[in-house]
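Long-time lurker. I teach an intro course on protein structure, and each term I like to show students one example going from raw sequence to a predicted 3D structure in token notation. This year I'd like something fresh instead of my usual example. Would anyone be willing to generate the tokens for the chain below so I can use it in lecture? Attribution to the forum is fine with me.
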Amino acid sequence: MKINVRPTGILIEDGRILLIKQYVTPTRGWSLPGGKLEPGETIEQCLVREWKEETGLNIKVKELLYITDRFYDAERHIVHISFLLEPAGAIPGELEWTHQDPHPSGSSTASREIKMIPIDELTSHGFSLTFQKLVKSGFPGKGSYKGNYYTFYGEAPTS
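-- Reply from a regular --
Happy to contribute to a lecture. Here you go:
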């Protein structure tokens, strides 16, 4: 079995959350920035690198939110570690912009669309109502292991 660690960052400013255009499922084309931990890289280094690549922004890790397990099949297991972030510098004044990702994944393009959307619009961008409620309520139970990704975030398993 292949096990990957995927740190994900959540940046919230003025009641808005940052999303990037990326295929997740047929009903979800927006994602939270993050990526695969590389050999010799700390989780924080991974987040800083992935955010810079995907959004052009410099960030700082503020606090641990949740750890979950995501099993795609019998051979693929991803440990998701979600963090609340803060900017380590200015973010664009616009609510939408594009950024050239030097290392796009197979589920995205090199020219990334980025949006700061109101938290109340998460479900219209394909996120579960459960996730939207977690964000709105300030991440209750943060800093803890939550088990199955799909159960915790209220999403249907994908392949």
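Some talking points for your students: The helical segments are 43-55, 129-136, 149-153. The chain has three helices and eight strands.
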